[in-house]
Amino acid sequence: MPARRLTARWLLPVDGAPIEHAALLVGNEGRIVAAGPERTVPSPAGVHTESFGDAIVVPGLVNTHTHLELTGLAEGPPDADFAGWIRRLRRRKAERTPEQFAAAAREGLAACWAAGVTTVADTGDSGAVIRALAGAGGCGIAYQEVFGPHPSQCRESLGGLERQLDALGAFAGGRVLIGVSPHAPYTVSGGLYAATASWARDEGLPLAVHVAESAAETELLEQGTGPFAEAWRVRGIPMPSPLGGTPVAWLERHGVLGERTLCIHLVRATRADIGLLGRAGAAMAHCPLSNRAHGHGAAPLGALLAAGLRVGVGTDSVVSVGELDLLSDARAAADLAGLDAEAALALCTLGGARALGLESEIGSLVPGKWADCAVIRPPAGTAELSPAARVLASGPRDVVATYVGGKVVHRLERPL
After folding, report:
1. How far is 217 from 122, CA to CA, in rounded Å?
2. Which of 59, 76, 106, 285 is packed most tightly, with the most Cβ within 10 A?
3. CA-to-CA distance for 174 and 248, rounded, in angstroms?
4. At 2, is the pLDDT very low, low, confident or very high (cuts 50, 70, 90)?
């Protein structure tokens, strides 16, 4: 890949002060060589300079929770019956062919790049996303899902997961990582949770899990009641044992929580749960717009941040939110926790990188890290705001260009 030099009115390193009239020098290997005021950044002979005028260069956004294989399945806002919505979604997924999953994953990845996202943490069971990432030279973690709510399914489900990772391992490497995801407490037995977590630790794999998302999930684990419990009874699945704990406590009891565990949603996390998460060193993928769309409520983001948890922002799937606009989720997170624009932008850049354990490689624009960045032209009427606030007021239509490892993966073909 040829070296390149980018210039713009502003550059936001995220872990440092905004730089006005700035430049970013990218080396042949796709890493940042220099970043700073334009007059101080070298302009080597033969290196092309791309000038973006009054635009703002930011680190590539990190989307800590996607389901890119579901691209194209949106049918409008979700209804209030979350358990029923899950069942209907699974039936629609079952109708898709491998070729359709592959096309959906490629389309979803392109939509992420068009929104300034350069790293995704994706969960799915088709294997299409890791193939799309590898084929397009992308960056992210593909968490392979495993299901099995009946205790008798444990050995079969874990064996299937191991075979899937054997087959998909060929697509992992470099900037594409593979992980596992025991889906959620309403689709995975305690035994399968414990077995999957143990196997992931032995294999050195990151783990992601949907947890504490809905009232129905909490009712299942605390009381053995509610729509998920009724669905289990219809299928002859025994209730979780023992009952009485929160979903987060359920994970802790089965050895799931750890430094490489990404907990998705955490809407119903209690004070005691936050303590468990903090002691385990687990991270969080915060999806405020998805939580709102499903009527689940708002996660205690302020308390989670105050406890020192590593938190990133995620969009969830287009089936839940319609559009993969991570900056919109960042605005919602800012409103929820009373964050300023700089802190909200950090959540979807360096914060997301930390949540995924990738902060040494991405998340801020400093020499040595990968040259993952987005060039944003903020909308009209924002000129009086700070650079970070202008970025936060933006959306996918304002992303002029996106680079992954210095390579252009999206460019808006209109004059600046």
Report:
1. 22
2. 59
3. 32
4. confident
Please compute the mean of the pLDDT values over residues 386-401 and round it to a whole number. 97
Whether residue 416 has pLDDT greater than 70? no
Residue 142's DSSP bridge partners are 122, 178
Distance, CA of 260 to CA of 281 (rounded, Å):
8
For residues 265 and 304, give the distance between their C-alpha atoms in angstroms, rounded to a whole number: 12
Judged by phi (left if over 0) then psi (alpha if -120 to 50, else beta), residue 226 lies in left
Signed CA dihedral, 113, 117, 122, 124: sign only: negative
**337-357 mean pLDDT:** 98
Phi, psi of 357 (to 5 degrees): 75, 25
Q: How many residues does the chain have?
A: 416
Q: How far apart are CA 410 and CA 396, in angstroms?
A: 11
| Residues 195-218 as b or e (16 or more Cβ within 10 Å = b) | bbbebbeeeebbbbbbbbbbebbb
pLDDT at 412 over 90: no
Rg (CA), the chain: 21
Give me the DSSP letters along 271-302.
HHHHHHHHHHT-EEEE-HHHHHHTT-----HH
Tokens read off for 321: 């939110």
Q: Which two tokens stand for residue 187?
A: 């689709």
Using CA atoms, how far apart are residues 301 and 365, in angstroms rounded to an integer?
26
DSSP structure string for 344-357? HHHHTTHHHHHHTT
The structure tokens listed for 39 are 């007059």
Burial class (CB in 10 A: 0-12, 13-18, 19+), 407: middle
Residue 177 one-letter amino acid = L
Cβ contacts of 337 within 8 Å, gap of 6 or more = 301, 302, 305
What is the Cα–Cα distance from 345 to 339, expressed in whole angstroms?
10
Residues 7-19 as b or e (16 or more Cβ within 10 Å = b): bbbbbbbbeeebb
DSSP secondary structure code for residue 257 in this structure: -
Nearest Cα neighbor of 409 from 173, 118, 73, 174 is 118
Helix (H) or strand (E) holding 151: none
CB of 90 within 8 A of CB of 146? no
Q: What is the mean pLDDT of residues 384-405?
A: 97
**Cis amide bond preceding 242, omega within 30:** yes
C-beta separation of 212 from 266 below 8 A: yes
